[in-house]
User: Fold this.
Amino acid sequence: MSEGARGRGSGPPTPSVGRSAWERLRRRKTATAGLVILGLLLAGSLAAPLLMGDPNEVDFAGVLQPPSLEHLLGTDQLGRDLLTRVAYGGRISFLIGALAVALGLAAGIPVGVISGYVGGTLDLLVQRGVDLLLAFPGFLLALTLIAVLGVGVTNVVVSVAAAAMPVYIRLVRGATLSIREQAYVEAARALGAGDAAIIVRHVLPNCLTPVIVQSTLQLGAAILTAAGLGFLGLGVKPPTPEWGTMLGEGQTYLLSYWFIATFPGLAIFLVVMAFNLVGDGLRDALDPRMRVLGS
Amino acid sequence: MRPPLGRYILRRVLYALPTLLGVTLAVFLLVRLIPGDPGRIIAGLLASDEDVQRLRIELGLDRPLTEQYVRFLASVISGDFGLSAVTRTPVIVEIGIRMRATMMLAVTSTALAVAAGVSAGVLAAAYHNTAVDYSVMMVALGGVSVPVFWLGIMLMLLFAVHLHWLPAGGIGTPAHLVLPALTLAAFSTAIVARMTRGSLLETLGLDFVRTARAKGMGKWAVIIHHALRNALIPVVTVIGLQFGTLLGGAVLTETTFAWPGLGRLLVSAITARDYPVIQGIVIIFAAMFVVVNLVTDLLYVAIDPRIRYE
Assistant:
């Protein structure tokens, strides 16, 4: 609601006619579907060590086996069980997504809040810096950083986080700017509250809504970027079963053995779609102003 | 009342210059952040010690950073990105050879995304809350979620391997362009469709549209004659911003389809640690993105008379 009072002067953002209770329910349903998909995939990934064997166990007698009862998703070019690898891959992908978003937030929130709260020259400098980062298309920025830092899990996390950070800075700065001018913040200041207290008690909690929505969507985007890097052979190193890396590693076999590419890619697709469903649902629920535009 | 359009355009162009300068500075600093001897890094692992020494003098690597940057900037502006550390050909020549393929792919995909995205978005808005709307939104959700390289592989499996309708990779005939362009366009199409739908729904709720409807104008007449023009204004901006994602996607698409463009060159340069080529392509890509956004900003003014260009 933090920005609700600041109308855009272009009339109601949604045609109120079309917003029936039925549609809200449908939206909640799609968000629920997203949560269920995420829950299943996350549970499967977490339980992988309990249920399955070693994802790197090679079996040269059984390479490139199509799906069967023994290997539900088939085996890859080294005879490794694809189901096991896809399940273990979820651990890597979820971890990279979570760490990258956490790192992006850890860097983006303070910079955004300070830039918006302090204003003036500092704000101008920070915003020019953000402009500069946004001049690099996101995936390209991550790719460039990988070129400099080298491959590996840590560098993938850092690169993906750096690509997401400018979005957070801009988002949090915008929220901070609008909150700073609110009457209750002025009242708090008049009562003698210091800047730190105002930031912690008023500004940060009010930034939370857009940040939560954005982070959910960013989790999917981060996993997608990391998988793209992996596919190019510039992400997580083989034999670690990251989904994109699995596709890149099996590149020569992708067109001859359909199951090599299909299942790891399907996993990425499902996870990203689920995060998008939940993110869109959260936005609808938390920020009515954004309802039509994003969906 | 309105200041002349020419001055506004000039101001917008001048405003893009610092960003372009910043791009070159960022790339310059990044390459120098790599641990190790910058002479060796720029010359490449295959270069002889004499080559490295010559490069060191040529680039003034013993001089202060500011001086090095000014030299770097001067050569970039004159189109000199140095020599590839692998092939020893000028980077600008390497880029020139592959630019056409990338542009062909990017322009086709953008055209496809605009045509399909706007049509789908209009349909979804016109049939709001019906099966048409839900189907468009469902496909769009798929479009923003699907990994571009996986979509490419799946399309190849279906249309090249299974049905034998189209070639699986490479370049040459128009048929070679179909699958890469479809693959690359998927994400942008989805975004354009979502934006068109949202924007058109918003416009359809405005007073002047209600008035037109109340006058007895039909739904489609109102959409085509009144609402669409207004609704497309934010879509133009989104198309510009999409171009960045498109360039990133081009790197993946080109690799998937063995499409001999800049993206594929970038990946092989990163693998080979060919920093002059990496530098050159990153600067070119960022510059293309900045220019495309500048153009969409100007288009925005051209189609929306309400914008005050201060």
Q: What stands out?
A: The mean pLDDT of chain B is 87. Chain B has twelve helices and no strands. Chain B has two domains: 3-77, 91-303. The two ends of chain B are 11 Å apart (CA to CA).
